[in-house]
Every structure is written in structure tokens, then in C-alpha cells.
Amino acid sequence: MRDGKPLRHIVLIGFMGTGKSTVGRLLAERLACAACDVDAEIVKREGEAIPAIFANRGEREFRAAETAALGAVLGADDTLVVATGGGAVLSPENRELMLRHGFVVALTADPEQVIARVSQDENRPLLQGDLRERVYKLLEDRKHAYDFAHMTIDTTHLGVDEVVERIAQGFI
Ligand code: S3P
């Protein structure tokens, strides 16, 4: 409890490659609480990797699994730092869940920085094909998707420790 209110989770949102999972782990250490990654939770609950869920069942089912996983994670009693997938914000139901249960922090980064970061990892079904084209298109589609956050941090020129510190200061 804090000020007579139940403690809230910290929910990290942002486009793919903005550092949510890494920041989430380090922020949880900094705040001495647990970290949770919703993508990892989906894989655990569904028993299938994310590209396999997209390929075998389609994006719609992936999104349903994402909402179910997010709801389960945010229902936890103890404070968690929750890293969400880049598209979790697309559903009004998810946005409502995040705002109800958490202090929502958006991480942003310049497109070229995003491209450099995601090019290390081929596990993202929505970025198959021409990577640069896909990133620019999705960034445009999601231009305002992260605007509902309580706090936004542009990570382009910041080290991960600085990002963690800024969030910790905003939360405590
Ligand atoms: C997605 C982002 C991914 C993952 C899935 C869809 C998206 O998570 O949830 O591939 O729609 O932006 P990361 O943001 O952790 O890469």
C-alpha cells in the first residue's frame, strides 16, 4: 500500500525495439520488485512461440492471447514492472487495463535506432519482408498509439541506466 492506495504496477509501452524488456528487467532490480514480460507470458500460456502463433492462428488470436496474458499479469497483487509488446496498446480494452492498474511509461526511439535494434532479432512476425519499409509504415500507423502514457521517454540518446533512473524518479 502507498498513501492508503494499493501499489500500482509500472507498465512499459512502446514500439518494437525501444528497449522495454531490457529497461523492465533493470528497473525491477532498481525498485526491488519483479519484472514480467507479457510476450514471454503469452508464450508460456499458449505453449507456442510468437511467430508460430501468428503463422498458425493469425494475428487476431495472438491479440486475444495478449489481452488474456496482460489481464492475468496486471491482476497480480505485488508490484511488477511489466514490459508489453509493441502492439498491446492497439486495443482499447488493453489501454484501459494498463491505466487502471499501472503507472504507464512510453519508451520511444528514432526510426533508424529502432531499425538498428530490431535487425538483431528475427522473431517479429510484423517485421518480415523489407525491414525499413515495415518499420516506417508501422510507426506511421501507430503514430499516436502510445500517447496515453503518464510519462514518455525518448531513449534515442540515452543509456539504459539513465532511462531506468528517470522512470524510477517518476514513480517513487
Ligand atoms: C508486436 C510486438 C512484439 C510482439 C509481437 C507483435 C507489435 O513485441 O508482441 O511480435 O505488434 O508491435 P515487442 O514490442 O516486445 O517486440
CATH second-level architecture: 3-Layer(aba) Sandwich
The CATH class name reads Alpha Beta
According to CATH, what is the topology?
Rossmann fold
| Succession of helices and strands | EHEHHEHEHHEH
* Assembly status: single chain
Counting DSSP E segments of at least 2 residues, the number of strands comes to 5
Bound small-molecule species: shikimate-3-phosphate
Major pleated sheet: 5 strands, parallel
Number of domains: 1
Query: Which strand order does the major sheet show?
Result: 2-3-1-4-5
Assigned CATH superfamily: P-loop containing nucleotide triphosphate hydrolases
What is the number of helical segments per DSSP (H or I, 4+ residues)?
7
Binding site for ATP: 17-22, 124
Subcellular location: Cytoplasm
Enzyme class: transferase
EC number: 2.7.1.71
Short précis:
The protein is an alpha/beta fold and 172 residues long. It contains seven helices and five strands. It has a five-stranded parallel sheet.
Written overview of the protein:
The chain is 51% helix and 15% strand. The protein has a 5-stranded parallel sheet with strand order 2-3-1-4-5. The longest helix has 25 residues. By secondary structure, the protein is of the alpha/beta class. The chain has a single domain, classed as P-loop containing nucleotide triphosphate hydrolases (Rossmann fold), CATH 3.40.50. The protein is built from 7 helices and 5 strands. The structure holds shikimate-3-phosphate. The site of shikimate-3-phosphate has 10 residues, from loops.
